[in-house]
Design a protein that fits this description.
The structure is a homodimer. By secondary structure, chain A is an alpha+beta fold. Chain A has 5 helices and 10 strands, in the order E-H-E-E-H-E-E-E-H-E-E-E-H-H-E. In chain A, strands 1, 2, 3, 4, 5, 6, 7, 8, 9 and 10 form a 10-stranded mixed beta sheet that branches. In chain A, helix 3 crosses helix 4 and helix 3 packs parallel to helix 5. At the A-B interface, helix 2 and strand 4 of A face helix 2 and strand 4 of B.
Chain lengths: 248, 248
């Protein structure tokens, strides 16, 4: 029995190692495609699943959010189980709820939080490197924290975007930029009202130069202020990055 | 230049998901076989790698220990890198050191520590279930801790062994049995001077019955005292189990 057009918000976790990122594309498997196939299997209707934003190839998520329109009458609390029955083991819908017709996973988002996990040891780790990037020699976490502090606030983050960004303003407001050390793991947490393309990974690549004493915290601030991508460090690998939360 | 017969102790980490456990066997790939192949590639000599004990199919390790005899003159600090170049991504030698001729990874061990990770949530988790066993409904961790406390000390653990144990005494001394809760994860830590076959997994399977209110902590103690395997709960899955440390 159709109940009219509903708008459903879903929260999604995935291991991104086997996917070419979030966004549907020809010839490569993506998270969005898998989710749309699952929604179609459950609702018998072709449906677009709108994410809060793209995640790149190999990036993970514990709290990606998306919305979709459906006429299915399935109760929201049963929707995750119904979808998960049609999803592979590396993607899961954690929760679902009915939301207002004007809710949009991307445009309604107030902030996103990413975590980037660094494994700081000389030898590779079979049980940790699926979700962490290993670096050596040892990094100075307090220097990295000094540098990261200057990210908080409203800034032009052009120095930390990669080619391929959407056109438009490169000003964003960062509300959290913290390192949590639990040796041999270091997690960089960053929350902002939006992120430029590859912004977290460019920041982490530059923070690692700080941690290795190659860039001082004050130089890091100059890089941010320069707005010039060639002043910043390399883009850190995708495997350490995880989209943790989107707030509305 | 041969330097005579050395005895080398190695510490090994592995993701056990793709292996039929530690011990070499025909027709199935094991951790021991992979390590012996790597040692042979490095030293040009067929060599037995003696582990501190078997781990079962699918069980992981962060601190398995083994020893091997070799006439290779490779310095111990270079041995991990040399071996890792010949090991797949899911096995790594973390460290190596020369030890006395009578050191034996199994017989010299004073204690072993295992961690068993439980993921306590209703929905599956793509990024956590590689190293955790998911259970639902919610468990009462304080009841589980009450029950686990009775494991500490010297006891006959016959109630918690599976068929296939080595013959001999079933008395072991447990020096630590603690639950650490960091929702939605719960980690059960247990250290003992030795473990019977499947002992940790049988204990965890029974502790989960306690956590779900099906077995009281005092009944758990009676199960231990009974010495009867059919009084205990099911054997918990391998994926949550990890050998963390062997002390000498």
């Amino acid at each position: 029995m159709p109940v009219g057009r509903r708008n459903i918000k879903i929260t999604v976790e995935y291991d991104g190692a086997s996917y070419f990122g979030w966004q549907r594309q020809p010839n490569h498997m993506t998270i969005q495609q898998r989710l749309e196939e699952a929604v179609e299997a459950v609702t018998q209707a072709h449906t677009t699943v709108h994410g809060s934003g793209r995640t790149d190839t190999g990036v993970h998520a514990r709290g990606q959010v998306a919305h979709l329109h459906t006429e299915s009458s399935i109760p929201p609390e049963k929707f995750p189980y119904a979808l998960n029955a049609h999803l592979p083991h590396d993607i899961a819908v954690l929760s679902a709820e009915d939301v207002a017709a004007d809710f949009h996973a991307r445009f309604s988002a107030l902030s996103k939080t990413y975590a980037y996990t660094i494994l700081n040891q000389p030898i590779r780790s079979p049980t940790r490197e699926r979700y962490a990037t290993r670096v050596w020699p040892a990094v100075d976490v307090s220097l990295m924290q000094q540098a990261a502090s200057c990210l908080v606030g409203e800034h032009d983050f052009a120095a930390f975007q990669s080619e391929g960004s959407r056109p438009g303003s490169t000003v964003r407001c960062v509300t959290r930029a913290e390192l949590a050390s639990d040796p041999p793991l270091i997690v960089f947490w960053i929350e902002a009202n939006g992120f430029l393309y590859n912004m977290v990974r460019a920041i982490v690549g530059t923070l690692l130069l700080v941690g290795h004493g190659k860039v001082s915290p004050s130089r890091f601030r100059s890089v941010l202020e320069s707005g010039a991508r060639d002043q910043a460090g390399p883009t850190a690998p995708a495997r350490g990055l995880c989209l943790m939360q989107v707030t509305y």
